[in-house]
Amino acid sequence: MARVLVTGGAGFIGSHLVDRLIARGDEVIVLDDLSLGDRTRLPEGVRLLEGKVQEAGRFAGDLAGVTRIFHLAALISGYDSLKDADAYLDANVHGTLRLLEVAKDLPDVRVIFASSSTVYGNRPEPVRRESDVPMPITVYAASKLMGEHLLATYAPLYGYSHVSMRLFNVYGPRQNPDHPYANVTCKFACAAARGLPVALYGDGRQTRDFVYVDDVVDALLAVEPGSAEAVYNVGTGEDAPILGLLRMAEQAGTTKLQIERKGNWPNDIRAIRADSSRLTSETGWTPKVALETGMARTVEWFR
User: What is the pLDDT of residues 35-50, one digit of tens each?
Assistant: First the structure.
């Protein structure tokens, strides 16, 4: 049994990860300020430290004996990060720094960091590989890249291992459609389940690599053992147009959606998909949930 810390563990991805850790018998500690998370998502047996990741030092005594840290806590909107850069740098960069200051006093700890595909920015070629030079176009993306660099700096100095996981467009149950950070899969699934109108930004031909939350949890756990240090993409390798996603949601919800056309998002990325072959070759991880199946599950969850 391992003693594990999950920052942001009451959130969307974090709560799914916590469920898996508890199911396998780990002792799980969650650090979450509940600004995006929900304590009711946490199963019995989890210890919740309610606070910001920037305050990690305040909880250092509670974290003695932790050997794994899954760092998922973050502010997550690219658009909002351009309007409130200070908040994003504080939460995502300063928060990561404070967490690493605690981690350096934990013997043999391994830190698994949830980074983002947005670090790659906008490129003519849709496929993103870990060898590509990052070109962030939002403060959010820059903050995730800075988090990766902080891990790479601290780990050799203080003797712990680290992995950065560049997550592509994660979707599935437990997202909050009313939250301003909710992504398009969440909004479409909720609208299809409840017969609500839905906003469509741009022409709908933008493509994304949508990866189901259970597959993401599998990826996070796949890199947990050992001491290898790397950056990995986490995506399906398949791109789907936003308009096609909307049609999948309609089919799962058995009702035609009322579409409200909107303009383009500022700095919107036109096309992106992951090359996750490094993760597959080194860990054996492969995504299992097809987009149609995942959207149907998500729509059903919202009913």
Answer: 999 999 999 999 999 9
